[in-house]
Amino acid sequence: MTRPTLTQEEFRLWSEWLAEEFGLHFGPERRDTLRNRLEPRRSALGLASFEDLLFRVKFHPERAAEQERLVPHLTNNESYFCRERGTLDTLREVALPHLRERLGGGGELRILSAACASGEEVYTLAALVRDTGLFSPDRVRITGLDLDPAALERARSGAYGEHAFRGASPEFRDRWFHPEGEGVWEVRPELREGVRFQRANLVDGAWWTGLPPQHVVFCRNVLIYFDDDALRRAADGLYRVLAPGGYLFLGHAETLRRVATPLRVERRPGAIFYRRPEEET
After folding, report:
1. Closest by alpha carbon to 273, among 211, 212, 202, 220?
2. What DSSP element (H or E) covers 241?
């Protein structure tokens, strides 16, 4: 059977819906990319066209479940441990010592990994904080958020193949993971302490409600998919979830220059980050 094309009208309808529902931006130059990412689900369902697929994800009685299945095909959820070391070095050498001084020995450190995918970033941050010795492990809370339920289940399982460690040293893997079958490594129990995962859509108006103020937020390699309106909504939520004086780290190719935000940009060798002002009027 010949695979259908994504017509111009179908592309327009899909682009409008994805921007409104998830804040995902597919410009005209990414028409083929969108088609290729939708094709596996269209084919699996045996639908004749991408218009039929859109109708299903918008109006079918099981549309919520169908949207959850579709999400992994639309964004790149690939992650790995110890990604972007310049950012991690800045967290270790700049942010955490400052927060230790500010919070004191009894204060609780709260870190958020927004768009955490399958959890590699969350466990990387948990290991980094423990390695510094600046905070008592029972006073550290790290939350991972993602839109994809399947990715969150993988994160909760804490089991990873060798490919996930391509940016990490063997010492990191051996210290914080134990072998669980051939080519599979599982997070050690002590690294799971204080870690939790939950579902959230960063372009929803109130995704941050219910979370206590966070001292550090990582939101890397997701804003590049957002159009301007979605970026504004996401940036507002990131600002609101940060505690005064808190640190926001984006991916190395991301910026908030396209939107107005009270967050202040700061630079250190190897990293650019944002901070919520300590005092606000």
Report:
1. 220
2. helix 228-241
